[in-house]
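Hi everyone,

Forwarding the result from last night's run.
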Amino acid sequence: MVAFHASALDGVARNSALPTPLLLRLLAFHGGGDRRPPRGALQRAGLSASAVRLILAHPDPGVRIDFAMSARAEPAQRARLADDPSFKVRAALAYGPEAYDPRTKVAPLPDAVCVRLLDDPAPAVRTALLDSPHLASSFVASMAAHRSSAARREAVRAWEILPPGERSALLADPDPEVRRAAALWECRRDARVTAELVRDPKSAADALRRGLVLRTDAERCVAERTHLVALAGNPSLPADLVERLAVDSDAAVRLAVSARPELDETRRMAIDFAAGDFDRGDSVQWVRDGLADPEVLRRAAASAHPLLRRAAARSPHLPPDLLGLLARVEDPVVEDLLGIHHPDTPEEVLMRVYARLGGTFSAWMAETHPRFPREGLAARYADHPDGNYRRLVVRDPAATPALIERLSHDTAVWTRQAAAGDPRLPLHRLREALHIPELASSAGANPALPEDEMAAVLNRTGVPA
């Protein structure tokens, strides 16, 4: 198969205007080897029942794997692969979609299906399920009494909703890893449990970071200078030890103290700390835990501490006044995080992220944000010296077909590809683009591509009628 014909087929598979008969024809395709339906066809949104039946019955397990990992498919549709003869397909179903966009929300499989996968005869399927980031909390909690120690260890993640009896059973579990995982949750409210964990090198740092710590253990760590960064952020650390660590010789310890929740702004900013230019505030757990709490968000967003502001910028729940406050902060990390996480990030912030980081993940997140600017881009960027900006012209509803055609001949390949996928591209140029290697995929995905041209692409790539 000629390479650009394959690229055109990939584009057609993604085309939002692909007619149902051509989609079904494409889904039934099996040419042997790697000649099979493109992933774009298998992971489309809103597949019909007839389309799903074709995928489930496809002889190529790779086709069924692609569907099992579709973030756009309904969980009930993917769940029909739970009895697939290939353990690789069942493992892909168990793990679920790989969603790289934080704005993508993946609905979990039904609990009953997860129960079956957890008891699958293939170890790879069971492992994939327990590693999945998409499990419902109700299912996670249901594993607390499972015969598999690995499943019970994962059930600990649902600690806050487990009944007291199941918590007690996990704390006394015959498996030491399960007991340790359970204790690391219980230690937040039990100093005795914390003390036991501190004596275990495998759990000492985590216990000192979040457990209800005894003063004797805290003093010993300070005296021995062990796990000080973890201890410096512990919510139960006595105030006098907080003051000692606030002037510690280790900059990382002072930084951890400076982010503590009980400090007022005067005390916080009096500490000699320095936040890294690229530190995104991941370590500020009290803010991370309170991203839906208005009081926590107000304290963090209004702080002069860069890590608190960055942690708050992850919240999609910021009210308009705090969003505006953070949008005015001259901090590139805050801008990046707002562009990724907040649905109402101002246009000017998104544009600054794009201008600063063109070609990166953060720039792509800004460009695909629903509030990224559209109007006026043609006038501003049609003749910009940077092709990364000329590419934005296709977003402007005022861009003319003549301008789109001009950009389809641009010197920058990304600009040419953006123009080739725009429905305003004149038909004669769209047909040409379908046969140009670097433009074929974009042209194939262009919703203005006539049905007969789509059918011709299938014909040229050997997809049976």
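DSSP finds 34 helices and no strands in the chain.

Cheers,
N.
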